[in-house]
Amino acid sequence: MTPYPNLPYSHNGLRAFESVARLMSFTLAADELNVTQSAVSRQVKQLEDELEISLVRRKHRAIELTPQGNELYLALREGYSNIESVLASWKEPKQKRIVIKAALSYATRVLISKVRQLNERYPDYEIVIIPVIEEDEALNYTDYDLLVFHTQLKNHYDNKPGIRVLREEFMAPVCSHSLVTDDLDLDSILTLPRLHPTLDHTDWKTWLSDVAYPPTTPVRNTSFLSLDLALNACLSGQGVTVTDLLLIIPELERGFLYCPPNAKIQHSAWTYYLHQNTKSAVIDDLIDWLVEENENELSKLKRLAQQNDWYGVIER
After folding, report:
1. How far apart (Å, rounded) are the C-alpha atoms in residues 257 and 263?
2. Residue 283's pLDDT is what?
3. Burial level of 61, CB count in 10 A (0-12/13-18/19+)?
4. Which CATH class is domain 100-167+271-294?
5. Smallest Cα–Cα separation from 246: which of 135, 139, 150, 131?
6. For site-directed labelling of 215, which of 20, 192, 273, 316 has its Cα 20 to 30 A away?
7. Average pLDDT over residues 291-308
8. Does position 230 have pLDDT exceeding 90, yes or no?
9. DSSP class per residue in 2-55
């Protein structure tokens, strides 16, 4: 003998009725259950026939529940809510995430080195770091909480809502310490093979344009279409590259990369910006922290500049 003798044989009618009663619409219930309106209407009618009682009064443009229908709906709502709570408790809670999209060089040379700090600062969140190549294009999507992008279109982004400047670049030539000799001065380093992160050689052209006596001797050029590849080639002793010194503070401090005395540090045509896509206290804090970290890195660079007689924009 069944322990619930008054329950209808099929529970489909109960489910259809609960949806109709909650939404007060056969049409909306059909959409929610992904069936036709006639199917929902038929299931509710079969339930009424089996219970031998009217649950829903069908009017021309609306419906209303009978007293019995309202009683059944309240019982179903409580029952389904309790079942949902039990089933939800079996599932492993979904961890919250902070999604940071960033220019490839910033992601690989800055954010990766700060993963431990990010995890300690936000213990309740999974940190997701996604490198992007086309930084400006990334603004067309909303699948991130914070975007760190790198652009030459400074006038286009200044004073835009949700966007703020993170920093300028601080460019100077560097090479591997393995190439350093006693007589390797600035003039000598500029005769080494040049490594470029872009085909147009913009970084080198920009830096050389402000040098009082640029070298005239032809040099070998190699392009990689990636700052990280150019830096890796530089670290392996393949030549010299002009790069953003803030990206290589650890290598400069440890002596892996060498920037000669009296080198001039200049800004490039590129600027780093932050775009806050998610408005929350956590992302506000993340932005403040990244800005503070950038100031710390800039202070380190200024100390290195003083030690090595580098000059230029770093002195401002």
Report:
1. 14
2. 96
3. exposed
4. alpha beta
5. 150
6. 316
7. 95
8. yes
9. -S-TTS-S-SHHHHHHHHHHHHT-HHHHHHHHTS-HHHHHHHHHHHHHHHTS--
